[in-house]
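Deviation from plan, reported transparently: iron/sulfur cluster complex.
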Amino acid sequence: MRARAIRDSANGLTRASTPAPLKPTAVPLLNVQDLRTHFHTRNGIYRAVDGVSFSVERGETLGIVGESGSGKSVTCYSIMGLIPQPPGRIVSGTALFDGIDLLNCSPRQARSIRGKRVSMIFQDPMTSLNPFLRVSEQIIEPLLIHENISRPDALERALTMLEAVGINDAAKRIHYYPHEFSGGMRQRVMIAMALITKPELLIADEPTTALDVTVQAQILELIGKMQRELGMAVIFITHDLGVVSGLCDRVQVMYAGRIVETADTRTLFKTPRHPYTRALQRSIPALQSKGAELYTIPGLPPDVSKNIPGCAFAPRCEFATDLCTAANPELVAIDATHAQACLRVQANETLACS
Ligand SMILES: Nc1ncnc2c1ncn2[C@@H]1O[C@H](COP(=O)(O)OP(=O)(O)OP(=O)(O)O)[C@@H](O)[C@H]1O
Ligand code: SF4
Ligand SMILES: [Mg+2]
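Because the crystal trials were delayed, the predicted structure below was used instead.
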């Protein structure tokens, strides 16, 4: 990770102190273009992800931030082949991983990448842990599937990995069932499962939201440590902009199924341009002045099954004018590493907070 974390001891917030300027490479590890994933339900078509493009470089940490329902998980589930079809449908897009399009390759090719070269950890460990199987069986499964390895050797690797993620007395506990672990320990087991094949890309979907603050910090540190050791890229999904500041090299902000701003972490925190990013930043409790009333973004995210004319943030945006409903804002580059999708910013208007 290029961004170094400085812990703000007063509030536990971490900040990026040395972001290196981004140098996009000709062939990134992951390159997603125009991804659209919709859900066809009795109540209408939910455009959960609606034209998302981004890339991830080798070894980089990309944060994906946005309120609940903005399409963060659906973006990553689409890449991982985890969208239930029906009701889901990947309407368009490509997701090139090391040159192979995960959305349009053969099932055999996809299997050789997903779960081995790309793996995922979830907010709720029970999503990926089977309550009826001992941890030992579950943790060696990806090795037995993807590598030509004997069972004893796989168990040995599993044990080493459990120790690496901080499971005490791993030789005994590897034979436990998931319910015999605490929440934080289950999260560690899931991380061990995701990392055992030494993936090149780890997708971490809100891996700490359900945990208390101390365990949260330990898990984040663990992911950072494993990332440094394995040299892998990480996509880190969270609704908490405060969390990404110390963890991520780059951040992309999602709203209503689209990316509304993307930049390296320092730029995003120092000079956010899109009003939604500014509002998210304003709502980080640790950045609010002592004694002041806590700021929250007014209103709610839009219903993505409805046709939204113009900017989807307009009903909640303090800067909205008639211009904002006239056109659908596209993500436009400010410079090589910073892009945003506000029509008024694109018209070079200065948006001063009230
Ligand atoms: N199985 C489904 N059926 C219908 N709609 C769905 C389904 N899964 C997701 N959606 C739609 O996709 C939208 C985006 O969901 P997603 O899970 O990606 O949000 P998110 O940004 O990850 O939110 P959160 O922070 O709550 O996890 C939801 O608001 C919902 O409208
Ligand atoms: S386009 Fe208009 S409504 Fe949308 S973020 Fe910009 S100012 Fe706000
Ligand atoms: Mg989610």
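DSSP finds eleven helices and 14 strands in the chain. We consider this an acceptable substitute for the interim report.
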